[in-house]
Structures are given as C-alpha cells and as structure tokens.
Amino acid sequence: xxxxxxxxxxxxxxxxxxxxxxxxxxxxxxxxxxxxxxxxxxxxxxxxxxxxxxxxxxxxxxxxxxxxxxxxxxxxxxxxxxxxxxxxxxxxxxxxxxxxxxxxxxxxxxxxxxxxxxxxxxxxxxxxxxxxxxxxxxxxxxxxxxxxxxxxxxxxxxxxxxxxxxxxxxxxxxxxxxxxxxxxxxxxxxxxxxxxxxxxxxxxxxxxxxxxxxxxxxxxxxxxxxxxxxxxxxxxxxxxxxxxxxxxxxxxxxxxxxxxxxxxxxxxxxxxxxxxxxxxxxxxxxxxxxxxxxxxxxxxxxxxxxxxxxxx
Amino acid sequence: xxxxxxxxxxxxxxxxxxxxxxxxxxxxxxxxxxxxxxxxxxxxxxxxxxxxxxxxxxxxxxxxxxxxxxxxxxxxxxxxxxxxxxxxxxxxxxxxxxxxxxxxxxxxxxxxxxxxxxxxxxxxxxxxxxxxxxxxxxxxxxxxxxxxxxxxxxxxxxxxxxxxxxxxxxxxxxxxxxxxxxxxxxxxxxxxxxxxxxxxxxxxxxxxxxxxxxxxxxxxxxxxxxxxxxxxxxxxxxxxxxxxxxxxxxxxxxxxxxxxxxxxxxxxxxxxxxxxxxxxxxxxxxxxxxxxxxxxxxxxxxxxxxxxxxxx
Lengths: 312, 312
Prior knowledge:
By secondary structure, chain A is α/β, with parallel strands linked by helices. The first copy, chain A, has helices at about 20-25, 35-45, 70-75, 90-100, 110-120, 125-135, 160-170, 190-205, 220-230, 260-270, 275-290, 300-305; strands at about 15, 50-55, 80-85, 105-110, 145-150, 150-155, 155-160, 180-185, 210-215, 235-240. Chain A is about 40% helix and about 15% strand. In chain A, α7 runs parallel beside α8 (about 190-205), α8 (about 190-205) runs parallel beside α9 and α11 crosses α12 (about 300-305). Chain A starts with 13 loop residues before the first strand and ends in a 7-residue tail after the last helix. The interface of A and B includes residues 250, 268 and 300 of A. Chains A, B: Keywords: Lyase, Metal-binding. Chains A, B: One of its GO terms (biological process) is L-leucine catabolic process.
C-alpha cells in the first residue's frame, strides 16, 4: 500500500470529496453498500486523494450511514486513498478509531441551537467531548475539527466571528497538527465573511498549518466563497460530486459545492488539484442519477455538452 | 418624468438587468411585444433602475429582437427607468439615438474570430465604427462600451489582457464619461483573471469613472467573478433575471449570472442594490416559465421554498 501523508496535500490545493457522506446522507432510498464502495473507489481513480466515506452516527437518525463500517472495511486499504470518517461525539470517535479509520473528522456546531439539534448538547459540552476524544486516541491519528455553522445557522441566523474564536481558543491548543475546517453549513455565507473570519483565524492561530473550508452552494455562492477563502490562504476545500447534499425539506436548498466545479475553477486558474475533471464529471453524472438525489453544480452539464470545454 | 442621472448609480452597486436583451435573445418562440413591455415595467418596479430592453440588430439574424423599437417606444418615458439599447454598429447606433434610446451600449469583441462571427469585420474596423458613431451623436447621449470576449473566446480560447488594452488605449480617450464594460461572454473567466484585467485597466485609465462587468454563469463562476471584480473597484454589474441567456446549441451553457443571485449576495454583504430581492425572484420565476427559456440561478429556488430565507 502506498503510504499517504494525511496532512500534506500533494497538489496546490486539496479537494476533499464529501459526497459519500454529506451528499448521500439526505438521500432517502438506501444506496447499496457495494454501490457506495464502488463510488469511493472510482472517486479515488479520478485523482481525489481524500474521501469522506461516511459517518459513525445513529443509524436510526441517519439510516443511509448505517453501513459506514462496512464501507470503511472495504476501502481502508485502497492504495493512495485517505478515507475520512465523520464523528459527532467522543464515543463515535473512539468507535471510528477502533475500526481503524485512517482519518477522523470531529464535528461540532458553533451555534447552540444547531448543536443542540444535532447532538442534544451545548457547543461547550461538545468541546469537552472533543477534548476527551483527543485524550483517548493515539497521537498519530490524523484528525480534522469541523466547526459547523461557523458563518450562519439555520435557526439563529448569522454567527459572529467572536463565537468561533472562543471555541478555537479552547480547542486549537489541545493538539498540534489538527486540520481546522470552518463550515458554511447553510450556504448563506458571503465572500466578505470568508475574508473576515479566515483572516482573523489565521492571524490568531499561526501555528495551525491546515485550514479547510466546507461550502454549500444554496445561493450559488459556493465558488465565490471558496475563492475568497483561497485568497486568505485556505488550501483544503470540501466538495461533493454532482453537488449532492440538498435538504429534502427545503427544495432548492442544494447541497455542497460541486467537486467538479471546484476542480474546474482551480485548474483553470492554474492551481493544481490532481483531479481529472472530465472523469469526475462523468462519475458525477452517475451520482446525479441516483434515485432520490438532488444534484447541483454547473460544470458537469457543460462538460457533457462540449467535451473539449475543459481545454484551456 | 423623474430625471435619471444615467451614470451615477443611486446605490452602492448598480445591477443592470440585461434579461430582456441577452436573456430573451436566444429564446426561440417569439415573446409578444406586450409581454416584453410588461416584463420591463415589472423589472423596474422591483427596484432595478437600468434595463437593457433589447438591441438594434438584424431582425433576420435575431428575430426575437425585431420589436425593440416598439418596446423602446413603450417604456422610454417610464419614470425612474433608464432604458439601455445594445448596438453592434455605427448605423444601428444612429438608429437607436434617432429612436431616442436613453442610453446605448456599443458592443465589439476583443477576439477577432468572435467579432467576425458577430458583425463580419475585425475588432479594429468595429473600433473605427465606434469612433464614427461617437462623432455622429450628441455629446450628452449616455454611452456604454461593451468589450465582449474580454477574457475568453468561444473560438480562440483565452484572451490576453494586452489585446484588451490595445482597444482601450484607442477607445477610452475618444470621449469622457463613457461606461466601460468588460464582458465574460463564455463564462469561462476565473476570478484571478478578473483581478488581473480590472486591476490593470483601472490603473491604466484612472479617468474612467464607470467600470462594469458582464458575467455568464456557465461553470457556476458568475458570483465568484463578480466578487473579484467588485474588490477591484467595479460597481456596475450585468445580470439577467432567472439567469436567462443559455445558448440553445450548448445544453448546460447557461446564461447570464442571475440578477436575483447578484442582488442577494450584495444585500447580504450589506452592499445596497435598491432591489426588492423577493419581488425580483418572483418575477424571475415567471420568466423561467417562458416557453423555450433555459433558466439558471440559485437564489430563486431557495427564496421560493423559504420565504424568510432572505432575512439576514
């Protein structure tokens, strides 16, 4: 197996494919485990290095994620793949580490209402939980910390940078080398917010080497926000192939920014991603056709119509 | 009639609604003149001040634009409306001025192949034609100069900034007060190109007070490019309601950036547009339903699903 250095992206930017987690999660009809495994393998084959393959969560709350352990078992040893697993609690984090997840992403929400809705506790309690998790797992386990609703909350509206800083002040010093991801969970962040929050955070925590951003494309602002974060020094970006991830209860509230749109923009800017954009777009077409999927993104349709459109 | 000062936007940014021209133009089924007039009036009622109501062009080449003189006659006196008409030649420009168009936008393409395809002449010949037009119309006629394919050409690919500067060197000194619009005709421009080209142009021509940008959203980059141009000092942006303007020969090659997406982003950033975003989104829904339309944009669907989504 090719050794993978988790936190040193081999390209100018790293696009983290979260489709199999954030994208599949809201899809109603169960996607067979074998199909999930095949998608992960083919995503990796397009040049994506890191894929969030699922989450360790309550199967009752998120039935689509019930087979994450099986997916993990199948893809863990895939050469060149860094399989990331999302966890919302210490307990789930320990389970993921015990299941030999190559990388774990611990998520907590900055906004109290959203955190309570997800895990029935306050952000402070989730922060303490994260601290216990770090104390209980090996130092060498690659970890990402996702701060959800870092810009805006579906319940409480705009989130102030100060609330993010309070959490980072407490959590960043706990462990060196953790990747910090600020998430625009609702897609209502605007690019000037990206500038302000990442500008403030990177200045306040110069020791953090790896900043990441998680964009949703609800209002078409995904790429604008990514570009602003890129200019602030962020080099790791989440995306979902076919822009999957729409909320079934909010028609039009589309999902993550499409990975193929991200890759197309960066490659066009001369910023290498390591991704074969045309191959990713083809695979995204298949994901878009999954029963119950709510696809988004733009580049896919153009690349399909004009196979040469990617040639600069 | 309320006097309108053409080139002093009353808000932080001015969104120029080009849907009735760039958006309607590729629609096959003829939109009745009365419907066009009604759309222009209702667009104005949402707070849009300037609307490109059509073009003076060959009715054989663009039958949808054949009734622009009639639309112009009907809306010219609408209080608070600045009706802009696109013209590709001196002759059409003189016709538009004779028809008392409140503002004319002269378009020429930076790329020789695209200019030849549009008007069967070189960019230099079109530049000379523009010079003759300026000499032949009153000094007080508000004029915009559109440089199409300023970033990328459907035939020749990427356009170098030097080619834009050669044209601006010749055309900017001809007349003070002209608004200069750099157009991403294909939607393949990326935000770093926006920075470079507008950065260079605004530094080279400090006397130009009004810079504008025309974005297409083909690859989902519309808002990203607008944001980058905004940061370079641009304050006038074209958009089409419902993101109309897709090319019927390139499925997925969607049209202009949606005016409602533009307005949503700017208002959310605290940059005033004067537009009632919810009202514009409702009207855009009607435009999206026009037979033969290929709508785009994102905010519309979310605003429809969650009427409160616009509340910051």
